[in-house]
């Protein structure tokens, strides 16, 4: 299993001389890719580091995300809403998007995926 910080790092590895050398040094063996699963976006929140376990079904990811989004949305509207009510709609939406995505990435999704891990991995 390989993990990369972004698509560019992944592509550099795929095209690297080091990777090619690893596969060329297998005397008597030929490298054939049997399966490839690239995780992008939400699946990475649910992938346990160091394992090859597949991500849960998308409906379970959707339920988990909804459970994480709801309290952030509720609190964000209650706390930030009154201060942002006079902002232009686009600016207000941008402010909410920045706050919500930051809280989802660093707080809510790690907590929810850890809490629901037994259910997610059934």
3D structure, described in words:
The protein has one domain. The protein has helices at 7-14, 17-24, 43-46, 58-79, 81-84, 89-115, 117-120. The two termini are 21 Å apart. With 122 residues, it is mainly α.
Short account of what is shown:
With 122 residues, the chain is mainly alpha-helical.
Topology:
Layout: H1 7-14, H2 17-24, H3 43-46, H4 58-79, H5 81-84, H6 89-115, H7 117-120
Number of strands: 0
Number of folding domains? 1
Any idea what the radius of gyration is? 20 Å
Oligomer: single chain
Elements, N to C (H/E): HHHHHHH
Low confidence ranges: none
Structural class: mainly alpha
Which bin fits the share of residues in helices? 55-70%
Please supply descriptive tags for the structure shown above.
122 residues, mainly alpha, 7 helices
